[in-house]
Design brief:
The protein has 82 residues and is an alpha+beta fold. The protein has four helices and three strands; from the N terminus they run ββααβαα. It has one domain: GIY-YIG endonuclease, CATH 3.40.1440. Helix content is 45%, strand content 28%. The longest helix is centred in the last third of the chain and has 12 residues.
Amino acid sequence: MGLYFIYVLRSSKNNKRYIGYTSKNVQHRLFEHNTGSNKWTSQNGPFRLAYAQAFTDINKAKDMEIFLKSGQGRQCLDELGI
């Protein structure tokens, strides 16, 4: 049984947040984002890891990612200072 992670990155460039999920090591995924793994992160990096949470169920990880990208989820992250 593998682990799945949701993670929140914070841009050092403009303080924007990036929310994602992965089955990879979170530190490795952060490295990928900081080396331009996709267009948005390559334009807004470098990033630091602000939050990560592990799940044993991929669907729960995906559901949490969707929640954190919603208005209510972003509000929760704001209230927690993430």
